[in-house]
């Protein structure tokens, strides 16, 4: 009987720990998005009006994706361009973690 109880307790903790993996931190999300905007601006260097100046990035929430691997984070980016002026956009962005523990954006 004690072995059965011990096995049940062990399984309980295994399942609890499996659900404890967390997504990217707010600072990781912001850093990765800033890198993406910098890459875009470098590609758009010949079109200065198309470059995006990011004023702020707000991370609302990150939750484990139900349909795909990784985490879906809802973010709002406020910024401006010479073409569209100032504005903000809220969207969902998917992040996956590499084997080395680094996060990356997946389109």
Overview of the molecule:
This protein is an alpha+beta fold. The chain has a single domain (22-106), classed as Roll (Nuclear Transport Factor 2, Chain: A). It contains two helices and four strands. It has helices spanning 2-18, 26-43; strands spanning 53-64, 71-81, 85-97, 103-106. It has a four-stranded antiparallel sheet with strand order 1-2-3-4, with helices on one face. A hairpin with a 6-residue loop joins β1 and β2 (71-81). The radius of gyration is 20 Å and the shape is globular. Residues 1-20 have low confidence and may be disordered. Keywords: Signal. It comes from Desulfonatronospira thiodismutans ASO3-1. This is DUF4878 domain-containing protein. Residues 1-18 form the signal peptide.
What characteristics describe this protein?
Nuclear Transport Factor 2, Chain: A; four-stranded antiparallel beta sheet; globular; disordered N terminus
Question: Brief description of this entry?
Answer:
The chain has 107 residues and is α+β, with helices and mostly antiparallel strands.
Main β-sheet, in a few words?
4 strands, antiparallel
CATH class: Alpha Beta
Number of domains: 1
Work out the number of β strands: 4
N-C termini distance: 51 Å
Instruction: Report the β-strand fraction as a percent range.
Output: 35-45%
Signal peptide: 1-18
Keywords: Signal
Organism: Desulfonatronospira thiodismutans ASO3-1
Protein name: DUF4878 domain-containing protein
